[in-house]
Specification:
single chain, about 210 residues, alpha/beta, five-stranded mixed beta sheet, three-stranded parallel beta sheet, binds cytidine-5'-triphosphate
Length: about 210
């Protein structure tokens, strides 16, 4: 399970990140553990209390998350990538604090690796189930379908992050689920912990079908 935002340092005092709180990923980790699964949680920085009896790896940057996830990815039956990974990082990180007074700075960015797409490429004959999340603000289904195909996923969970009750910091979510075979489901608004349970029910069914 991956959860939370990644961050990319600009200098020793500043960083780029996003608004992901990690609540959905932590709820999934907790729900999976309560069902008896052996759970590894790879988490970006968050103030959330980690679920009990979960192997927790704390990471900061996208590259650290990539290394941690890829190191053991062959061991997992299911990989759920709920983390909101930063798509870019600064081309250079300053060793010392960048001082003002030198005019407005322009930040040059380079693209981060897409961890989920890499996992998707490695699927081959693997029986590992690959689940992605899509954080969208418009054209939810079309964007999710494109991500599912491009990243070779079994299932993608879409949420509208522009809404207050389904966004990053909310305790509730209303997700749509898109499956590889094209069929879709619309779950109503509910607490994230309940969303996690509903998702695990679907993932379990898929897992049983595929094994
Ligand atoms: N993801 C990833 N590595 C990245 C970016 C995203 O592993 N560098 C994963 C996320 O964990 C999520 C899925 O890909 O499961 C979709 O992430 P999202 O941020 O919705 O979309 P992007 O692929 O980054 O595309 P865009 O930002 O253009 O919507």
């Amino acid at each position: 399970m991956t959860a939370g935002a990644t961050l990319e340092p600009l200098d020793p005092v500043r960083y780029m990140s996003n608004r992901s709180s990690g609540k959905m990923g932590y709820a999934l980790a907790r729900a999976a553990r309560m069902r008896g699964a052996k759970v590894t949680l790879v988490s970006g920085p968050t103030a959330l209390k980690p679920p009990r009896d979960v192997a927790l790896s704390r990471v900061k940057t996208a590259e650290e998350m990539r290394r941690t996830v890829l190191a053991d990815c062959g061991l997992y039956d299911v990989i759920i990538k709920a983390a909101a990974v930063l798509d870019w990082r600064p081309k250079e990180t300053s060793e010392h604090k960048i001082k003002k007074g030198r005019g407005v700075q322009t930040l040059e960015l380079v693209e981060n690796p897409d961890i989920l797409a890499e996992l998707g490429c490695m699927q081959g004959n693997s029986r590992c189930l690959l689940v992605g999340f899509a954080a969208e603000t418009q054209d939810l289904i079309a964007n999710a379908k494109e991500k599912l195909k491009k990243k070779n996923l079994d299932l993608i969970v879409v949420n509208d992050v522009s809404r207050e009750d389904t966004g990053f910091e909310a305790d509730t979510n209303a997700v749509k689920i898109v499956y590889r075979d094209g069929h879709m489901e619309d779950l109503p608004l509910m607490p994230k912990q309940e969303v996690a349970d509903q998702l695990l029910d679907r993932i379990k069914t898929l897992w049983e079908k595929s094994s």
